[in-house]
């Protein structure tokens, strides 16, 4: 004897029902009971019909007509014309009955739980009769079993409890006396001892099948649905969810209790009691292995079996100083909830005993508040207990696995992952069986939580990084090219999948959660919406994506202002833009603190020396306990280019123009030539070294005549041309001494200074060519011979690669 159950999608239409019959023909010999759900979506529509009728809304008739047509069409598409009439008239007759009931509801303007169950029972009654008639018409006779007369329950309509003694003997007797091989029964429906129809709870057809399997001591129960079995997480939320080949009864029960909808939670009970194995199989891919649920020996090293989540949760907190040490408070709380038949999903009590927290379904909140505040009325009046505190819009996420108890560190990892992704945990519970750890979090974070936990516990292959980029000019464009080029390498060697989910320039923005194509991103961005910074940031934040990084490749002050709001949402920030780090110390410090507080990364390696590892090296020295004595550096690619190329033969203004044309300068080259850019850089290094330094505290010996700072960039070029003699004199003075000119930045004893210096051939700075930068770190460990970082310090390619390295760094914490 086997019992098979087919779910709503499996019987949603004639084509799917044909697949069901194929499975029955192919896979089954011997006696078989087949339990059928309502056609997909029908139960919801029946509920809707009832509520419309009860609220005097005549459109209930339209919903009914639509339902009737759908069932009649299914019969017509399935049965041979010559054999349709009896099935069609059965369907029509059921709809007549249903219409009468609904009309009564409409007239009375009232829908009792009993009538509601009666209405929704029609879904399964219809579907199972259609399947039975079709099977009989094309294959062989079968017997339709009226589950209402076999499964006896109490009168708790909508969620009736089964009387197993009566039920088991009725089912066994009915099947035993029949000569048929195949029985078809409606799922979900039952009746109480008065003979009134009841239902077993939403999703209850699974339970019906388990009840049959238990009563008949079946050799197996098969749950046929629309996925390849139980998976490590809900596949609608986690694209990388994996099939679970085998799972224990307890694990399956915990996963379904905490929301894995693939099995209705009470289903496991009757089969577990009799050790009947359960298969979960896919109607649309019967060749797939599916999941086997049984008393399974645990697999070495597999500590976690799956992750599930439950939405529409509310948290109730009963608090008060009067609760401490007095027995009976929790008993009264739970009695009050039980009396109202409110299901408690999770409980936590702090050891101080002055608060008990319970999670319940959102729909039960009003009833719960009334019941609990009523029970504790006297204590509330006496000020010993506060009125019940309610938090809505929550979810429960649960990590499930039999082996958890033998393995320390699971909860540490779980909460570490949640914390790093900025997910606040409202309450935690670990079952005494240590088979699950569950946490109550905001509904808005639930999908992200399940995704990141799945990644941490199951996806050893890949980590996914969601990247938002602002600025797609010279450096930004190169960055995207480099990402495209390195995609395969990152996947293969770093196990990293990088997705650009948002992109913006000063005119347009584009947000695409599934990822923007790296091949034609320019065209895609052009077709995007007009850029509006606040909406761009709000959209990026509201997606609440895991492992998110915001990359600023602009030189824009407004963009530098949004970092705080991103870090506070645990979104890492990678800035090529120097404005934030070189603005007032308070803002720089605030961003650093936010990054620490919200477990995000704030990285800006390219602020100094483009792609050279300057800030990273400084941080490594400090982290490992070294102390900085002095930093000396040549940090302006532009100024190096200019002084390396200027020897008085070609006018200074022309050399500067060439530097600008080759892309080494800021849009206004005076920021480079006036030393401001170098001041910013040495200040950032000083700040990273722990000094609270501001721009106006840095000494700057200008070499540009003051007249050069007046007017526009073009005026600047004209003025430089006029001042050629001044630049020649600067050059000659140094050359006469055998020295080169370099613009040097120094940080020593808490003070920073920048200015043009004569560099003799013995200096580390003498042999510095092209746009190279150099930084000398004199430290306690490198007192005489400094640690030197030297190389190309400007250019789109190297800057992009520095930004890229920072992006990857955010993923590898
Ligand atoms: P049926 O109508 O066949 O009873 P359900 O819709 O009740 O099907 O349950 C199957 C659905 O359960 C799947 O389509 C899937 O989206 C969802 N689901 C949630 N969690 C899980 C999980 N851990 N494994 C498999 N499916 C899951
Ligand atoms: N048709 C019912 C429901 O949708 C029962 C089931 O499908 O399992 O809840
Ligand atoms: Mg189901």
From TrEMBL:
**Which pathway features in its UniProt record?**
Amino-acid biosynthesis; L-threonine biosynthesis; L-threonine from L-aspartate: step 3/5; Amino-acid biosynthesis; L-methionine biosynthesis via de novo pathway; L-homoserine from L-aspartate: step 3/3; Amino-acid biosynthesis; L-lysine biosynthesis via DAP pathway; (S)-tetrahydrodipicolinate from L-aspartate: step 1/4; Amino-acid biosynthesis; L-methionine biosynthesis via de novo pathway; L-homoserine from L-aspartate: step 1/3
Catalysed reaction(s) here are: L-homoserine + NAD(+) = L-aspartate 4-semialdehyde + NADH + H(+); L-homoserine + NADP(+) = L-aspartate 4-semialdehyde + NADPH + H(+); L-aspartate + ATP = 4-phospho-L-aspartate + ADP
Keyword Oxidoreductase listed? The answer is yes
- Name-wise, this protein is Aspartate kinase
Classification via SUPFAM superfamilies: ACT-like (SSF55021), Carbamate kinase-like (SSF53633), Glyceraldehyde-3-phosphate dehydrogenase-like, C-terminal domain (SSF55347), NAD(P)-binding Rossmann-fold domains (SSF51735)
Give the GO molecular function terms.
aspartate kinase activity; ATP binding; homoserine dehydrogenase activity; metal ion binding; NADP binding
Q: Which cofactor does it need?
A: a metal cation
What this chain does, per the entry, is described as:
Bifunctional aspartate kinase and homoserine dehydrogenase that catalyzes the first and the third steps toward the synthesis of lysine, methionine and threonine from aspartate.
Instruction: Indicate whether Oxidoreductase appears among the record's keywords.
Output: yes
The source organism is Filimonas lacunae
The Gene Ontology biological process annotation of the record reads: homoserine biosynthetic process; lysine biosynthetic process via diaminopimelate; methionine biosynthetic process; threonine biosynthetic process
Q: How does it assemble?
A: Homotetramer.
């Amino acid at each position: 004897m086997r019992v098979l159950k087919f779910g709503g999608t499996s019987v949603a239409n004639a084509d799917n029902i044909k697949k069901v019959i194929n499975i029955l023909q192919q896979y089954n010999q011997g006696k078989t009971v087949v339990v059928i759900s309502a056609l997909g979506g029908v139960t919801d529509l029946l509920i809707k019909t009832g509520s419309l009728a009860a609220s005097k809304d005549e459109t209930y008739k339209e919903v009914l007509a639509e339902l009737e047509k759908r069932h009649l069409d299914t019969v017509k598409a399935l049965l041979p014309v010559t054999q349709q009439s009896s099935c069609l008239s059965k369907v029509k007759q059921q709809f007549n009955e249903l219409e009468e009931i609904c009309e009564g509801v409409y007239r009375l303007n009232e829908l009792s739980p009993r009538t509601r169950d009666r209405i929704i029972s029609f879904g399964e009654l219809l579907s199972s009769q259609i399947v039975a008639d079709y099977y009989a018409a094309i294959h062989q006779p079968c017997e339709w079993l009226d589950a209402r007369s076999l499964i006896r329950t109490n009168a708790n309509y909508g969620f009736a409890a089964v009387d197993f003694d009566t039920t088991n003997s009725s089912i066994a007797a009915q099947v035993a006396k029949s000569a048929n091989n195949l029985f078809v029964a409606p799922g979900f429906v039952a009746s109480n001892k008065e003979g009134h129809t009841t239902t077993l709870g939403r999703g209850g057809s699974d339970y019906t099948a388990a009840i049959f399997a238990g009563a008949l001591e079946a050799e197996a129960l098969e749950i046929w649905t629309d996925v390849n079995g139980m998976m490590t997480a809900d596949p609608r939320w986690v694209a990388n969810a994996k099939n679970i080949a085998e799972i224990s009864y307890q694990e399956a029960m915990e996963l379904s209790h905490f929301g894995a909808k693939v099995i209705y939670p009470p289903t496991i009970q009757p089969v577990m009691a009799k050790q009947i194995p359960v298969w979960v199989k896919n109607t649309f891919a019967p060749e797939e292995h599916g999941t086997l649920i049984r008393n399974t020996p645990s697999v070495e090293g597999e500590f976690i079996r799956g992750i599930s989540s439950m939405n529409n949760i509310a948290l109730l907190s009963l608090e008060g100083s009067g609760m401490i040490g007095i027995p009976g408070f929790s008993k009264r709380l739970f009695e009050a909830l039980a009396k109202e038949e409110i299901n408690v999903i999770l409980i936590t009590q702090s050891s101080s005993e002055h608060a008990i927290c319970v999670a319940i379904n959102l729909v039960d909140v009003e009833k719960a508040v009334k019941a609990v505040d009523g029970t504790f009325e006297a204590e509330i009046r006496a000020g010993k207990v506060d009125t019940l505190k309610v938090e809505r819009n929550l979810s429960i996420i649960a990590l499930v696995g039999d082996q958890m108890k033998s393995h320390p560190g699971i909860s540490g990892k779980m909460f570490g992952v949640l914390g790093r992704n900025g997910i606040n945990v409202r309450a935690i519970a670990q079952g005494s069986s240590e088979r699950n750890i569950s946490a109550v979090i905001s509904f808005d974070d639930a999908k992200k939580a399940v995704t990141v936990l799945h990644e941490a516990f199951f996806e050893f292959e890949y980590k996914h990084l969601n990247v938002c980029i602002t600025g797609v000019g010279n450096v930004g464009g190169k960055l995207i090219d480099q990402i495209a080029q390195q995609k395969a390498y990152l996947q293969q060697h770093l196990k990293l999948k990088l997705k650009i989910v948002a992109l913006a320039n000063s005119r347009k923005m584009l947000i695409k959660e599934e990822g923007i194509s790296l091949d034609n991103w320019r065209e895609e961005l052009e077709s995007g919406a007009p850029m509006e910074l606040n909406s761009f940031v709000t959209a990026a934040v509201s997606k609440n994506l895991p492992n998110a990084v915001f990359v600023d490749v602009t030189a824009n002050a407004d963009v530098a202002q949004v970092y705080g709001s991103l870090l506070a949402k645990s979104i890492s920030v990678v800035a090529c833009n120097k404005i934030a780090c070189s603005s007032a110390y308070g803002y720089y410090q605030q961003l650093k603190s936010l990054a620490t507080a919200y477990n995000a990364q704030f990285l800006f390696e390219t602020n100094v020396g483009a792609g050279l590892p300057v800030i990273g090296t400084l941080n490594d020295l400090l982290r490992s306990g070294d102390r900085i004595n002095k930093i000396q550096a040549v940090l302006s690619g532009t100024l190096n280019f200019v002084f390396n190329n200027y020897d008085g033969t070609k006018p200074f203004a022309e050399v500067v123009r060439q530097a600008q044309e080759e892309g080494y300068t800021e849009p206004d080259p005076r920021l480079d030539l006036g030393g401001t850019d170098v001041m910013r850089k040495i200040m950032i290094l000083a700040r990273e070294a722990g000094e609270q330094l501001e721009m106006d505290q840095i000494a700057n010996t200008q070499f540009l005549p003051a007249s050069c700072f007046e007017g526009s960039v073009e005026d600047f070029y004209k003025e430089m041309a006029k001042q050629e003699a001044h630049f020649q004199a600067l050059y000659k003075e140094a050359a006469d001494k055998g020295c080169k000119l370099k613009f040097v930045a120094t940080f020593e004893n808490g003070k920073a200074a920048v200015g043009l210096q004569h560099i003799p051939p013995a200096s580390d700075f003498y042999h510095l060519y092209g746009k190279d930068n150099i930084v000398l770190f004199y430290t306690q460990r490198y007192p005489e011979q400094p640690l030197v970082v030297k190389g190309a310090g400007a250019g789109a390619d190297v800057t992009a690669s520095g930004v890229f390295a920072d992006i990857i760094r955010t993923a590898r914490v």
